[in-house]
Fold:
Amino acid sequence: MSEQEVQFGIGEVAARTGLEPDTLRYFERQGILPAPRRDASGRRQYVAADVDLIRMLVHLRETGMPLADIAQFTGADAEVTDPSRLRLELLTAHRRRVEERREALDRALEVISRKIADYTDQATGSMNVLERPDTEITYSVQGAGPLLFLVGAPAGRAGFAALAEELAEQFTVVTHDPRGIGASRVTPGMAGPTPEVLAGDLAALVDAFTGAPAFFVGTSGGAVTLLELAKQHPEIIGSAVLHEPPLIILLDDSALADRAASAFAVATTDPQQAVQEFFDLSGAAHHTGRDQVPPAHIALPDLPTEELEKNRYFLGQMAGPSVFYEPDIEAVRRARLTVCAGTLSHHQMARRAAQALAALLGQPLIDMPGNHVGASAVPAEFARALVPLLDL
Structure:
């Protein structure tokens, strides 16, 4: 008897799939699962194909597929002339729903992380302040070991909270809110958040801790900040990992550059429109493998006032100088840099730019877990992949 012909009782199937026998019977009665064959005593007899189908049902149910669609997928609902095509259509539609749900969860996770950082500050008093000539920069420190600075733009302490916790057993982790972000409030007369200014803030922060080289990880605009830091102060960089710097200027794509400029131009007057335009052109909220491209457009819900104000500043003042920043390739070669990008960021603007930067530096592009926001969305996996890149 082949493996495919081996028969299982309902108890064995329950153990293999994690569904209780009563649940299996319920799905049969409701027309969600086809009824299995029965032996001479009327007992259910399942084969390997039945078990595989039930396991697939579990995945579909856990990811929110409607039971009516599951019934169509399993073939319990009705006879169809082309079940393979029907299943393909059902799975394709469900994948879109799952991706949209995952993107919504990523956005919610970012808001939750910011609130955790806020309440942590209130509960522990962990917020520190670095005085700059024109403003104050807030920062936090945790862990023990070599100094590691996590750098973002616009991501600040909240965006790195989970990753910092993962790394704190091996490093003294320093996170900060870039000027105008989080607790580093905009102040009158404050210089704009260009990569040059942000790199100056970071250099001053490093100087407050050590005169020796330190480790750095920069994501998105923070990776651009590190490129400018490598130009200004290569001597303070022991090793730096740059994750998806969104350097549109390296792509030689004038249409994409025009779309970005258009989004930045309306940010101060209509941040909702600016967010939508930048969301569509960057693709950065999506999860795309090698053979997938980001959708051209997904309508965003109306953003709350807090998010609108954040993006009025980020897209109106910070994003443009970072996205259109032109790195000095020869200058940054003096620092030890590693360029990486998400395995789920294929065909997105930032991964394409990272690939171009890596090529200019004559190095391979390193794959990292997750997409553009992998550092906050999958912090444990990201941390495990990150540590070897720092070349301790």
Q: What stands out?
A: The chain has a mean pLDDT of 90. The two ends are 55 Å apart (CA to CA). DSSP finds 15 helices and ten strands in the chain.
